[in-house]
Amino acid sequence: MNKRRPSMRDVADAASVSVSAVSLVVRGKPGVAAETRERVWEAIARLGYTVAVSENGKTSTVGLLIELQTEAQRLGYQVLLHMFDHAAESLESLRTSLAGEVDGLVVANDGDITPAMVIQLEALQAPLVLIESYLPGQQLPCVLGDNFTAGHAVMQHLLNLGHRSIAILRGPRKYSSLNDRLKGCFAAAAEAGILIPAEYMPHTVSGHPKKGYVQMQEILRLPQRPTAIVAISDKTAFGAMEAIKEAGLRIPEDIAIVSIDDVSESAYTRPPLTSVHIPRLEMGILAMQKLHRLINGEPEVAVKSVVYGELVVRESCGALPEMRSGRGATSLAGLARA
């Protein structure tokens, strides 16, 4: 049986450092302490890690703003992971660090990475693919979760369970994916003739590590609380569930809650969280395959690819047992026909 080639992640784990630190070391870049650099090289030697080199002797590197390491390495690319910090790094310094170093870019999420910044990154003249981000009016290849349908699905699910007093824990407006989820929630509510009161949609607290917790506390202080909550993300839901329990209330008996993302922790909350699964692994693979074709000059139409999700029904929403039978997953296409 062929032994798996060690990855940059393996080196990072062996040296107890970050992947970005390993990347700096192998590229001979500054920013890593001498002791750390020595530890990284020892791990590289011990594991037999090698940098991918193309036929013309050039190192093939893909700059990533999200971890897509498995698929990138399968296609023969070295991974450069760059976490952009708008507070500590300028766009010019980012462009300078990437110019000539990468064969292509995958840019994940928007928010602090604004449309203007993406357009300027295009000036690097390296193939570019977006994940969970798109630019109106710009024909850039992108891979998205079906966020509008996800928002519609969770709201529709609560409506099907008989809820009419529903609050929404929204997210920061700078993220297009969260905005699309919110639009889906509104659409489902409007179809049922329901208007969500402004006090049932508290804004996020900038910079707070537990935004959902703070938002939920605000709702719980209202004279009349809702019977159900739509959290725009699982992270928001986790904070909200903490606030509900802290107030001495039960989930779902006193307040039902549903969410979007279906991260691994969602199945292990108490009670387990109903959430729409966003297939991030598949999105990453699809984006990397698009980028690979662009790098190799293969024909690639610039399209907005939307990857379907599914509603995973668990105990937090108060669904009847028969609705939670089997895997508890309901296709969003099926919900649309219901």
Q: Could you please describe the fold and organization of this structure?
A:
The chain has a 6-stranded parallel β-sheet, sandwiched between helices. The protein has a 6-stranded mixed β-sheet with strand order 6-7-8-9-11-12, sandwiched between helices. The model is unreliable at 52-57 and 333-338 (pLDDT under 50). The chain is globular, with a radius of gyration of 22 Å. The protein has 338 residues and is an alpha/beta fold. The protein has 12 helices and 12 strands. It has 2 domains: 8-144 and 281-307, Rossmann fold (3-Layer(aba) Sandwich), CATH 3.40.50; 147-278 and 309-337, 3-Layer(aba) Sandwich (Rossmann fold). It has helices at residues 8-15, 19-26, 34-47, 69-74, 91-98, 115-122, 147-160, 176-191, 211-220, 234-246, 280-295, 332-337, and strands at 61-64, 78-81, 104-108, 128-131, 142-145, 166-169, 228-231, 256-261, 274-277, 304-307, 310-312, 329-331. Helix 4 (69-74) links the parallel strand 1 and strand 2 (78-81).
Largest sheet: 6 strands, parallel
Regions with pLDDT < 50 over 5+ consecutive residues? 52-57, 333-338
- Strand count: 12
- Measured as a percent range, the helix fraction is 25-40%
What is the fourth-level CATH superfamily of the largest domain?
Response regulator
Instruction: Provide the residue-averaged pLDDT.
Output: 82
Ends distance: 49 Å
Name the structural class. Answer: alpha/beta
What's the SSE pattern? HHHEHEHEHEEHEHHEHEEHEEEH
Backbone shape: globular
Please report which band the strand proportion falls in: under 5%, 5-15%, 15-25%, 25-35%, 35-45% or over 45%: 5-15%
- Which CATH class of the largest domain applies here? Alpha Beta
Q: Strand order, main sheet: write it out.
A: 2-1-3-4-5-10
Count of distinct structural domains: 2
Number of helices: 12
Using the 3D structure, state the CATH architecture of the largest domain.
3-Layer(aba) Sandwich
- Gyration radius, rounded: 22 Å
